[in-house]
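Before going further, learn to read the protein records used in this course. A complete example follows; check for yourself that the lines match position by position.
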Amino acid sequence: EGVVGVRPGDRVAFANVQGAYAQYQVVPAERLVPVPAGLDPKLAAASLLQGMTVHYLLKSTYPVQPGDQVLVHAGAGGVGLLLIQWAKRLGATVYATASTEEKRALCLEAGADYALPYEGFAQAVKALSGGGVDVVYDGVGQSTFEGSLEALRPRGYLVLFGQSSGPVPPFDPQVLNRKGSLFLTRPTLHHYTATRKELLFRAGEVFEAIRAGWLRVRIGAEFPLEKAREAHEALEGRKTTGKVLLIP
């Protein structure tokens, strides 16, 4: 009663709303987005949160332009694989880091120009790029932060959007000056989908990219909902690639 914009039977998706580990969920109608006809519901579930994250990172936080050089950490993860594909679509040269040869092969398959181990990545990127990249998209945090700063060109951007290895310790902002007047930002999806207009815009472009076939979503593993603990253990053990789904 009183709900507008959605009717019983509509196929919808939501993201960034707490309580998704459930068979049923109450979600404000204004946070629901329509799932296009013909789009596999598993793909919709696998892509919405991470796809919109990639969208705001590449289109709004640091708008990537043709010819830009981009470093993506955790390139074989759910966000990383989408970042690689979309950055290439925008005309960037993409460097990706990953922890194993298998994961680096996935980065190259997704379109990365270079796939590197974490050890010594900053020096390798600076050498390959001719002095540093324009932007680093870092969802790893503590273990990559200093290297990410080193990998940037003067006046480059470090976009710190996660901390899978732990939070970055406090540091002196003068470091940004000494390393070339660098920019540092810590964005979050909530502030880039705060209005329904922006939510629908980002979700619509993600779903359209998947339907068009140029954005491929890798579902690396599926777990029944009652095995959510095992899913988290696999994630924390860095045993997964792509997106992990829980099936109610």
User: Anything to note?
Assistant: The longest strand covers residues 152-160. Residues 114 and 177 are 28 Å apart (CA to CA).
